[in-house]
User: Which sequence fits this backbone?
């Protein structure tokens, strides 16, 4: 298995340093609803974790919660609640949203406010060895004390200073020095420390948490590319300075950024979509497939059209995963070994999920062809479910409550799931109402000039063996004749 290491800028052979893979992924700052940017990063590292376990590696997975922060304090003041109350509310919402996306829970979710003693201990240690200093009740890390500072982002301190836009503080020895401990301000939460009341800086919490829960050297540290500098750069500097230059992380992994067309999606631009809003338009499998259709290091372009296409692919897999367990199946089987080998080959190459998905689509096509001939596809179906599970796909029918007036994809998925449930053995029976529902939906989309979404409905019916015929008198439908498939050769 090879993983692209941001630190070296190349793919490297991966083996854990011990029997257990130690994996740390940067978590949320809970002051608002979780959005599809959070979904992207969490799905990516959930799949990486799942695949490591599929390979037989035990994984200890830690993800922090930054539950004290300037944004939390500001938003809490605006809403007239305590910072702790606000953080607790949105932490719970985050965990609920991750569960709805079938993201496995972390082994530990350390919170910054629970780790104050460890943060103070690490800060004191950095002061004792000359890497940090106290000024005005705050403690700053001395960037100039680290000769290789900038090795992750491959930048020099001079170039960083030139790009610095933050207000330069007179309390700091150097413009790039960053806070490990912030002196308390009126009205803000604070904790007692050797330097007076205050609260932790952003970067130090991740070093303290990873040291406490995973040890001095991690196998994998993950996060978005936007965290590479300054957050991860600062984590390296303070962690390796504290441990006496022991390597902090063996493999740095960064997922690409989310885009809407050619524009970055961000809270400041106001173009982010929440996870809950997205799941009213799509199933969790559909959103996962959208994320995994781009390599994790590449940008992900989000649109309703892309989400609809991903939901369509989820339905292709669901249809293939449906059972045909009757006792009078024809002889014949699908050679699943080659599909499994190709899936593993793709994922071994820096977790190439887009290639792995193509393997699943091809396996699904073979299953559907053999099912149409009444052949035994149980082994192939079990393989499809197993490999889909490695990607976190459940292939369950979408929940009916996913549909609402604005959720076109949810409506399609819901009615199409009803159609599938009516065909348990691949032989259409009483599906007229479900088909008519999809025909009515397509007609409404055409009246509203939503041509692409209307074509999705037609395509899905075509996959289910239903042909639509449009005429001035309206739209009619008929079933395709069954074509025998040669099996057992």
Assistant:
């Amino acid at each position: 298995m090879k993983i692209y290491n941001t630190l070296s800028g190349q793919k490297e052979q991966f083996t854990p340093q011990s029997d257990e893979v130690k994996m740390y992924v940067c978590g949320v700052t809970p002051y608002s609803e979780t959005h599809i940017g959070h979904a992207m990063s969490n799905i990516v590292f959930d799949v990486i974790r799942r695949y490591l376990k599929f390979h037989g590696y035990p994984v200890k997975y830690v993800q922090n919660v930054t539950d004290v922060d300037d944004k939390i304090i500001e938003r809490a003041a605006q809403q007239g609640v305590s910072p702790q109350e606000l953080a607790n509310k949105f932490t719970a919402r985050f965990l609920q949203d991750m569960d709805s996306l079938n993201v496995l829970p972390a082994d530990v979710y350390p919170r910054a406010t629970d780790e104050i003693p460890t943060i103070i201990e690490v800060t004191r240690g950095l002061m004792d060895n000359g890497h940090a200093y106290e000024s005005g009740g705050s403690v700053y890390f001395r960037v100039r004390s680290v000769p290789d500072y900038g090795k992750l982002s491959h930048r020099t301190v001079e170039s960083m200073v030139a790009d610095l836009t933050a207000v330069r503080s007179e309390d700091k020895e150097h413009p790039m020095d960053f806070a490990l401990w912030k002196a308390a301000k009126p009205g803000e939460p604070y904790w007692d420390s050797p330097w007076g009341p205050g609260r932790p800086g952003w970067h130090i919490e991740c070093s303290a948490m990873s040291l406490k829960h995973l040890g001095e050297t991690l196998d994998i540290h993950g996060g978005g590319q936007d965290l590479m500098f300054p957050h991860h750069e600062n984590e390296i500097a303070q962690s390796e300075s504290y441990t006496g230059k022991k390597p902090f992380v063996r493999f740095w992994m960064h997922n690409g950024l989310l885009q809407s067309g050619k524009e970055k999606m961000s809270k400041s631009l106001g173009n982010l979509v929440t996870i809950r809003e997205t799941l009213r338009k799509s199933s969790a499998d559909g959103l996962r497939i959208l994320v995994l259709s781009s390599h994790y290091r590449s940008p992900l372009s989000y649109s309703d059209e892309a989400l609809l296409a991903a939901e369509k692919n989820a339905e292709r897999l669901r249809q293939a995963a449906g059972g045909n367990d009757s006792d009078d199946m024809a002889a014949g089987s699908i050679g699943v070994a080659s599909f499994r080998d190709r899936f593993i080959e793709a994922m071994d190459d820096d977790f190439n999920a887009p290639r792995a998905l193509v393997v699943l689509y091809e396996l699904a096509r073979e299953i559907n062809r053999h099912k149409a001939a009444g052949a035994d596809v149980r082994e192939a179906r079990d393989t499809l479910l197993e490999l889909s599970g490695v990607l976190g796909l459940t292939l369950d029918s979408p929940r009916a409550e996913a549909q609402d007036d604005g959720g076109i994809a949810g409506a399609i998925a819901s009615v199409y799931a009803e159609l599938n449930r009516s065909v348990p053995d691949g032989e259409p029976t009483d599906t007229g109402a479900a088909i008519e529902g999809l025909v009515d939906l397509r007609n409404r989309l055409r009246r509203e000039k939503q041509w692409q979404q209307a074509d999705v409905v037609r395509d899905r019916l075509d996959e289910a063996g239903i042909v639509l015929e449009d005429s001035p008198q309206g739209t009619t439908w008929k079933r395709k004749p069954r074509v025998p498939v040669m099996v057992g050769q």
Notes: The mean pLDDT is 87. The CA atoms of residues 147 and 250 lie 19 Å apart. Residues 353-372 form the longest helix (20 residues).
